[in-house]
């Protein structure tokens, strides 16, 4: 195998998730050649694949031994080759956003809103308003989620990181929208990632123009090509 970084750095936004994963010493490099790179994020997390040829996609797909898995693959045109090896599965095509700089982005203050870390006292609220997978949401709060609280102590919204390192979980309750809360907590979340020496990145489902607009406002740049989450 060869050093995967030169391959990945040729398109930073497209490979930001993989470049960030390499900053984690637990990440495993499963394949790294001139025709593609494959990682196991965090050693036990999702697979991340980038293939230059159909043949490379076939080779890397065959390295996923388990029947149940999660993977983020690119490019979209080689999805048939992936499925030819692993069988059809649920997909979620996304644009990948990445922050290209090292300096913190401007942070925003919202009148009457305090941004502070969530605690386990907020677990049921997060589950009710984002995902009812209690174990997963507990792990996200333990890792570190930010909440926006009004003057009465009510949580107006929250943000955090998914297990593979992407910025996400962004939720603002309907009655608090159009006040700038989303961009305020997202900017602070991005700066936290920078302070950890990591690469801020996120995935926006194709068609979610509103979310893409918010990410651009805080300085994120989007890849021109699609990455596809595959779940089985």
Quick rundown:
The protein is an alpha+beta fold and 232 residues long.
**Which outline best applies?**
globular
Rounded mean pLDDT is 96
**Helix amount:** 25-40%
Oligomer: single chain
Largest sheet: 7 strands, mixed
What is the count of helical runs?
8
* Sheet with the most strands: spatial strand order: 1-2-3-4-11-5-10
Q: Unreliable runs, pLDDT <50, ≥5 residues?
A: none
How many β-strand stretches? 11
Topology order in helix (H) and strand (E) letters: HHEEEHEHEEHHEEEHEHE
Alpha-beta content class: alpha+beta
Radius of gyration: 18 Å
What does this structure look like?
- With 232 residues, the chain is an alpha+beta fold.
- It has two domains: 5-98; 114-198, 3-Layer(aba) Sandwich (Aminopeptidase), CATH 3.40.630.30.
- 31% of the residues lie in helices and 29% in strands.
- The strands form two sheets. It has a seven-stranded mixed β-sheet with strand order 1-2-3-4-11-5-10. Strands 6-7-8-9 form a four-stranded antiparallel β-sheet, with helices on both faces.
- α3 (54-61) links the parallel β3 and β4.
- α5 crosses α6.
């Amino acid at each position: 195998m060869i050093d995967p970084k030169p391959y990945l750095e040729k398109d930073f936004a497209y490979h930001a998730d993989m470049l960030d994963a390499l900053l984690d010493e637990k990440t495993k490099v499963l394949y790294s050649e001139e025709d593609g790179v494959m990682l196991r994020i965090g050693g036990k997390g999702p697979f991340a694949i980038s293939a230059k040829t159909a043949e490379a996609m076939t080779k890397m797909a065959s390295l996923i031994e388990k029947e149940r898995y999660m993977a983020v693959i690119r490019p979209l045109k080689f999805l048939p080759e992936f499925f030819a090896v692993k069988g059809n599965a649920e997909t979620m095509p996304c644009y990948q956003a990445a922050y290209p700089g090292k300096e913190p982005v401007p942070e925003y203050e919202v009148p009457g809103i305090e941004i502070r870390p969530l605690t386990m006292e907020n677990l049921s609220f997060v589950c009710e308003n984002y995902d009812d997978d209690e174990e997963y949401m507990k792990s996200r709060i333990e890792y570190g989620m930010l909440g926006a609280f009004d003057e009465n102590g009510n949580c107006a919204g929250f943000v955090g990181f998914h297990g593979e390192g992407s910025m996400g979980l962004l939720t603002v309750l309907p009655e608090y929208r159009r006040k700038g809360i989303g961009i305020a907590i997202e900017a602070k979340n991005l700066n936290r990632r920078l302070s950890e020496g990591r690469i801020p990145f996120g995935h926006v489902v194709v068609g979610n123009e509103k979310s893409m607009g918010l990410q651009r406002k805080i300085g994120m740049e989007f890849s021109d090509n699609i990455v596809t989450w595959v779940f089985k």
